[in-house]
Amino acid sequence: MAKKTYPPNRAHPRYWGAWLGIGLMRAGAMLPWRLKLALGRGIGLLTWKLAKRRRHITDTNLALCFPELDDRQRAALVRKTFIANGIGILETATGWCRDPEHLRHRVTFKGTEHMERAMAQGKGALIIGIHFSTLDLGGALHSLFFPADVVYRPHDNPVFEDFMTRARRGIFGAAIDRHDLRGVVRRIKSGHAVWYSPDQDFGREVSVFAPFFGIPAASIKLTAKIARMTGAPVMPLMFHRNPDDRTYTLEYLPPLENFPSGDDVADAAQVNAFIEQAIRRHPEQYLWLHRRFKTRPPGEASFY
């Protein structure tokens, strides 16, 4: 399929939807906290009712990863997942459009000694972030304690791409295209910490099959490759919205041990084990709406 082309004039009618979306995000970021939660829940519930395809994907993922849940329990978790991700839209808007300093009183940061010790080595660090609904707000809150760069996927729409890039550069030291491996390595070797999310299916060519919730999942090899090229410690970072829906916890764990090991499957399995551990704390906050098990081993049928 041919790639979309976009007119150079940012005022072109084709961009009006993007400008409207940006305006709504800026407005949403300024709402009082209770109103943000209420609006986010409403968005989540509306999406849950209307987005049948995404609901099917979410239900399939949860059935695979939590087989111990009966149909009623899984249906309840699907609904909670959509609500959490609806709130996540307002959290993302807040992370991109507001100074994170105004949320300092809402954050508890644990395990900072692990990050301080890692950075003291002078080799930089690779931070493992995870695609929770709190991802972009988590990055903003993280910047209150430690500077970091971020690896991201550019948006196809240039208006929204400009908006996202400016927002992320206001939070992070640098926003690095996920295809720019040299840029990532260069920043780490110069002593920077780089936030990177390796928990999506990027296809067979760049992945190995490693267990994730006990299921062979296409797991990117790049985490181990970056660690091997830089010698930097790989730092697992957990971040969640707390059950009170008003506060957040970010927690560093000790760096991954014997990583990279030289065995791509073992390395990917170690990364997946941390991601699974983090998800099990608050499973409804994970982005189950994406096809995590899209790529299957040869001969296996699609789950979706």
What oligomeric arrangement do these chains adopt? single chain
Strands across the major sheet, in which order? 1-9-8-2-5-3-4
Main beta sheet: strand number and arrangement? Answer: 7 strands, mixed
Spatial gap, N to C terminus = 22 Å
* Share in helix: 40-55%
Average pLDDT taken over every residue:
94
How large a portion of the residues is in β-strands, by DSSP E? 5-15%
How many helical stretches?
Answer: 10
Q: Specify the overall morphology.
A: globular
**Rg from C-alpha positions?**
19 Å
Could you give the order of the helices and strands?
HHHHEHEHEHEHEEEHEEH
Taking pLDDT < 50 over at least 5 consecutive residues as the criterion, the unreliable ranges are none
Secondary structure: number of strands: 9
Tell me the structural class: alpha/beta
Question: Would you kindly provide a written description of the structure presented here, covering whatever features stand out?
Answer:
- The protein has 304 residues and is of the alpha/beta class.
- The protein is 46% helix and 14% strand.
- It contains ten helices and nine strands.
- The strands form two sheets. The protein has a seven-stranded mixed sheet, sandwiched between helices. The chain has a two-stranded antiparallel ribbon with strand order 6-7.
- A hairpin with a 2-residue loop joins β6 (207-212) and β7 (215-220).
- α4 crosses α6.
- The radius of gyration is 19 Å and the shape is globular.
